[in-house]
């Protein structure tokens, strides 16, 4: 018997940009990001580049008639909810796209001028042509270099970034997002922070993220503008679409893809993959808990209770970790979890694991155990480095876990498998075991349990 099709309705976004044979930027990045953000991506290719992670080796511009044919084909058939532009290359192409402006809803203009490798992607005479296109935009998203070309302002302060946004709005854009990845602030020492400034008619919003030490930013501008367009197509308001896009890019840069011989690429589908890993992560935590109940790990359960925590592959916050709600406690017959496994159920072990991931992102699972001389002796037989921290810790609970992780990795030669906290005022001595996968965490914990001489 033939099966019935079960069609799904999905919002449509359109990208008008160049092709990147290396897959990290341009049309390829746009379509990956749109799909990851829940929109059906369509395209009109303006140019074909011979490009990889090391740079642009060649460019072939398509005739404007071919670009128009692609635009007509998409717009005549699809109910396009949002459009983003990328590499347009020449004044003629910019003018061609602008001529379609009244058919391009929620138009996000990413004024691509120079590739991350430094290769120029826009003819100098095309810069002036951008004014009319920006005038038709819902949002324009220049980085610092592009902002300087478009406005003559070289932004070095938040106030100057706002001034850029206001000048772009004066050209007719509904809003401007001035990106801070290339801004080196002259008014303070915030070299560890990226600030993006969104200027609308009514408000000025700033978005802040820690700066990531990486050169793998190829495709970052394409990914951001595509994510914003996808969310606009899905019906999000401008502020929400920008906030979601900025958050996605922050994670995409934090977990770049190690591809090619150059610096690599941002991770376009990182949010989707992280969400997809939630259920498997919770299942792995549940399996570890079941093993602990079966083997009775009560000799390792501290006074405050034990918790097993698992982080999704790209977790950045405690609410992206699965743990036992109410912890694991001792009973007359062994141990039992108080309730089930859910995300956001752990506090201090989750904060510790997230802090450790800043030093070793492969560490995804952790458990806290009591510690005394017998446990410390059993730890010495583990298959990895054990680090002990004696110092006085700060007062705030979250800061304690971050401080503990920092001290442990500072003292470790590599990535420790166990961190012993000898405790302090109001703080129970504890050992936290770490592992890249759930099975390894269970084996390490049970090895310590078996190493104890229990009467």
Automatic annotation (TrEMBL):
Residues 20-267 form the Pyridoxamine kinase/Phosphomethylpyrimidine kinase domain. One of its GO terms (biological process) is thiamine biosynthetic process. Transmembrane segments: none annotated. InterPro entries: Aldolase_II/adducin_N_sf, HMP/HMP-P_kinase_dom, PM/HMP-P_kinase-1, Ribokinase-like, ThiN. Keywords: ATP-binding, Kinase, Nucleotide-binding, Transferase. GO terms for molecular function: ATP binding; hydroxymethylpyrimidine kinase activity; phosphomethylpyrimidine kinase activity. Residues 285-445 form the Thiamine-phosphate synthase ThiN domain. GO terms for cellular component: cytosol. This is Hydroxymethylpyrimidine/phosphomethylpyrimidine kinase.
